[in-house]
Design brief:
alpha+beta, 3-stranded mixed β-sheet, 1 helix
Length: 84
């Protein structure tokens, strides 16, 4: 499944050995979903397309215009803080 609205823009950076990292920069991404499996004997489809479409829209909206970080990185630590 590919749809024009399953796109997002996010920023990231890459860390390198020797305490070097590239500048924060962004990209535009397009998501794609591939579903494989047997047909549901009652519904006669592999997955509910409406549910999958809604799920993918929510996921792409959640990371749109965010900074993407590795949660477990060797060179820096991420921590969650309570919202104020």
């Amino acid at each position: 499944m590919t749809k024009d609205y399953l796109v997002f823009a996010s920023a990231h950076f890459i860390t390198f050995p020797g305490h070097r990292c590239e500048k924060l920069h962004g990209h535009n991404y397009r998501t794609r979903v591939v579903v494989e499996g047997g047909l549901d004997p009652e519904a006669h489809y592999v997955v509910d397309f409406s549910m999958l479409k809604d799920l993918m829209k929510r996921l792409t909206d959640e990371i749109d215009h965010r900074v993407l970080l590795l949660w477990r990185a060797r060179r820096f630590r991420c921590a969650r803080r309570a919202r104020r």
